[in-house]
Amino acid sequence: MSRAVRLEGLAVDYGRTSRRAAVPVLDRTDLEFPAGSFTALLGPSGCGKSTLLGAVAGFVRPAAGRVAVGGTQVCGPGPDRGMVFQQYALFPWRTARGNVEFALKRFGLPRTERRRRALAALAEVGLADGVERYPAQLSGGMQQRVALARALAAEPDVLLLDEPFGALDALTRTRMQELLRRLWQRTGTTVLFVTHDIDEALALAERVVVLGGTPGRVLGDHAVPEGPADPALRARIAGHLGTG
């Protein structure tokens, strides 16, 4: 199952106190991500793309506007949204299976169901043979697969990924991109993927939303056609970022 995500006049600021004015991070933003879509949020560091993702996840409170998932306003984290970060954040004393199972405890599932989901999710990301390995026994790419499995095991309607492959080597990164694309095509989950890499955005997503400026705002919104890479589209996106 998947759900649409809608941002209505969403603005975010940080640092507001009784003695200090807030610093605007994300300007008022209106965007809609249809159910089952795969969108890349592209932009340089500091443009508000991770903040936008955090607001959808329910980790960041808006200063104005609202976020809605499936028509319901987001008021905090929820099981309908799964999050994958660049840092794996795995418990070193738990196996791959144990890490995924632990994340499922908050749903109050029986132990047998937690194990079933954990094993199924780890198999989905190609780690069926590594379920009893500890993080120290796994490569960086394999640890990120565990992090992805941890999110998938919750069977979210929306999958949020914040530069999840940024710390991986080029070959592993390409393999993880291919894996994510296959998983999205199979599950139809709504995906929002934060990146600062134009080529990664074009390789993965069917739509690229470009953010920039301070506070962050939408600079461009482009559909990505199927088939070979479009140099003209890449040039337009690079132009938004001032890298063309």
UniProtKB/TrEMBL annotation:
It comes from the Bacteria. The keyword ATP-binding applies. CDD domains: ABC_NrtD_SsuB_transporters (cd03293). Keywords: ATP-binding, Nucleotide-binding, Transport. Pfam families: ABC_tran. The keyword Cytoplasm does not apply. Residues 5-238 form the ABC transporter domain. One of its GO terms (molecular function) is ATP binding. Coiled coil: none annotated. SUPFAM superfamilies: P-loop containing nucleoside triphosphate hydrolases. This is ATP-binding cassette domain-containing protein. It comes from Streptomyces bambusae.
